[in-house]
C-alpha cells in the first residue's frame, strides 16, 4: 500500500508498505475519501506536536477489497466508514470488558497512524457498512456527528431549551443542526460571517456575530433567561470563559473538539454560577447511530460546499491550509479523493 506520512513539520512524503491480511477477521479496504480538517493541518504544521514520522487522516471512507474468512458484516465491495477512534483493548477498563470507558482510546491520525493511504488493513470490528443513500461525503462526517451526539447526551436538555454554541466550524454547525433535530434551540455564535451564513443555509435559525453585543443578543433571544447550557468548540478564537456569561445559573458548559489547544481560564464566574463543566472529544460507541442520523437526513452538509482535491495534491492543500491558518483565517474542511 501507499501511505502519506509527515516526516517533520511541513514535509509530507509517500512510502510503500506491505498490506496483507494477518487474521481471518480482518478486511482490506480501498480508501476512497479522506477528510482534511484542522486535525491534519495541525499535525502537518507541527502545532499538535505529533511523534514524527506520522500518518495523518482521522476521517475516511472506503470500499472493502478483500475480507477475511471470518468477517460477518463486510464482504468484497461493501462501502464502509473507517472508525476514527477505537478502544485500546489493553487498559484496565478494556480488559474488564468495559470498552466504552477506555482510558487510552486510539485515534487515527491523532495518537495512532491515520488513514491517508490507498489501502487500510483493519479488523472488521473497526468498520461500519454504509447504506446506499448515505454518500461518501456525508459518511466522512459520521465521526463528527457521533461526537456532537455525545455532547447532546451530556447536556441532557429538555424540549425547547436554548443552547449557546460557540464556534460555527463543522462541529459547531453539525451540533446545532442536531440540537434542532432533538427539539432544542441552538444559538450559534462565531466571529466569521461566512460561517454563520452557511449555518443559516443549513437551517440554523439563531446565528449571532461574536462581538461586544453578543451577550445582549443571547439575552434577547432567551427572553432574559440566558441559555440553559453552552458548548464551546475548540480552535475558534473564542475565549473559553465567554460561555460562563451566556449560561444561566446551575447550567452546563461542554468543551468539545477533536483536540484542544493549551489554554487557561478564570474560573470564578463559573463557580459563582455553580456551572457544571465537562469535555467531549470523540464518541466511538455511537458510530452506528451517527450513520443512522445521516440516513435520516438529520444533518445537511450540502451548504458547506466542500472542496474536493485529488490525493496527489495532498501536500499542496495542507501547505496552503497551514499558511491560511497562520494568518488567523478559518480553514474549512475539504475532501481528498484518494481515487484521483
Ligand atoms: Zn482501553
In terms of topology, how is this protein built?
Blueprint: E1 2-8, E2 11-16, E3 26-36, H1 38-45, E4 60-67, E5 79-82, E6 85-86, H2 92-95, E7 106-107, E8 119-123, E9 127-129, H3 136-139, H4 142-155, E10 162-166, H5 170-181, E11 185-190, H6 193-201, E12 206-209, H7 214-221, E13 227-233, H8 242-246, E14 247-256, H9 268-272, E15 276-280, H10 287-295, E16 307-310, H11 314-326, E17 334-337
Parallel strand pairs: 10-11, 10-13, 11-12, 13-14, 14-15, 16-17
Antiparallel strand pairs: 1-2, 3-4, 3-8, 3-17, 4-5, 5-9, 6-7
Helix pairs in contact: 1-11, 4-5, 4-10
The structure holds zinc ion.
Zinc ion (ZN) binds near residues 88, 91, 94 and 104.
Give me some keywords for this one:
340 residues; alpha/beta; Quinone Oxidoreductase, Chain A, domain 1; Rossmann fold; 2 domains; 7-stranded mixed sheet; 6-stranded parallel sheet; 17 strands; binds zinc ion
CA radius of gyration is 20 Å
- SSE class: alpha/beta
CATH topology type of the largest domain? Quinone Oxidoreductase, Chain A, domain 1
The geometry reads as: globular
> What distance lies between the first and last C-alpha atoms, to the nearest angstrom?
16 Å
Main sheet: strands, sense, barrel? 7 strands, mixed
Helix content: 25-40%
- Uncertain segments: none
The count of helical stretches stands at 11
| Integer average pLDDT | 95
Number of separate structural domains: 2
CATH homology superfamily name of the largest domain = Medium-chain alcohol dehydrogenases, catalytic domain
Beta-strand fraction estimate: 25-35%
Which architecture of the largest domain does the CATH hierarchy give at level 2?
Alpha-Beta Complex
